[in-house]
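REVIEWER CHECKLIST
Item 1: Sequence provided? yes
Item 2: Single chain? yes
Item 3: Sequence as submitted:
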Amino acid sequence: MQNKFSFRIMSLFFMVNLLAGNMGMLAAYPPASAGTATVTFTPVADAYVISTSASTNYGTGTTLRVDGSPVTNSYLRFVVSGLNGATIQSASLRIYANSANTTGLTVKVVANNTWAENTLTYSNAPTAGATLKSSAAITAGTWVTVDVTSYVKADGTYSLQLSTTSSTNTNLAAREAGANSPQLVLTLSGGGNILLMAGDICKHDLGGQDYTANCKKTGDLVRSELAANPGAQVQTLGDNVNNDTGTDSYDTEYKDLYAPNWGSFLNVTHAAEGNHDIYLPGGTAPYFDYFGAAAGSKPGGYYSYNIGSSWHVIVLNAQCSQAGGCGTSSLQYKWLQADLAANTLQCVLAVWHQPRWTSGRWAGYASFASWWTLLYQYKIDIIANGHNHNYERFNQIDPNEQAASDGIREFVVGTGGAPVDSFTYASHPLDPNEAVRSQVPVYGVLKLTLLANSYNWKFLPAAGYTFTDSGTSSCH
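Item 4: Structure as written out by the authors:
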């Protein structure tokens, strides 16, 4: 599997010059409070040692071993980082057993973190300290779980020794074993970074229909989440105001529509440009005038920023005529290449307005296929769009909308308050590998809890609506 960093082959000179004028905002933001979440770490080093081969190193294989006779112990080291102030509620060591024993294994603290897996032997192995817990009898082909909460308390480096009193030589999966690699699973509360997202937000009353009420409801929902989660941020997904050509001055629309409903949290908002944000009169000028630096640099309107120590967010401008193009020869595409190549954070989210894949009223846009191909090459984690006035979530898919374990999870969140599409969703099938779609009108926002190497999502319905969707996933 190719890593998302494996495509960083562009020259530093090109990156610096291209990014300098177009990066827009690039900053780390403070952590936010969050609910309970789970994050998983794999070892950075592991090896086993045998008393009868005291000078031999066993650090390169795909297995670990424990045995009481001859004494055979295994060592693991984990680096816990990026908790962003979260409290560890519980910590569990999970080891996959390739063979069985009736005694189980014992986990002990190792205070010395300087050992190396390619030089560790029985003779130079660090001394183990206090016993944490012991497991029950081990069954082959199962995961063994041991509680290590008393030891793992915060960001830091943690070494553990595995041993057994059983005289059965027990085979365990090492970190080189891929999907069966040992795991340190933490259940967290608080911490994390919250990002609230929706597109298609505000529209004037037309034809006697009140279109501002739901925009206010979603704004109230965002305000309540921001109050409960200090440090949380907001990302719009385009069509921040939703009138058509000639209906009203866009300067007036931002003043009369967006400002009273979503404007109170402008200081923590990042904006994306939608097709309704560029209509005449005014074109893009009111959009940039209102959002300022939160809209990125003029005239492109594409930019990126970091959230916490693990997440990189890319905001693209799907209004190609305004951005100078979207194709592979455009400045925006070349900027995207450079931005992906320069990124050093593990988890990546990209947003723009019109979706590539959707089963909504407006069909998906093939013009963004090249973006999908490039983003998939870098193994980014999430794409979020608006445009269709509904909520959709896809399983992880590749650029051809096929299921892929290294694929991108796409969300469509056009539920910010603009009137729902005149489209009977119940009579239209979901797209291939589309997991969830709101079948009846709904307004609300998507809440992402961004953790060190994973994320949780939850669709929060506005007052008067009940649809919701939630889940969790690891970053690539």
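Item 5: Key structural point noted by reviewer: The radius of gyration is 26 Å.
Item 6: Recommendation: ____
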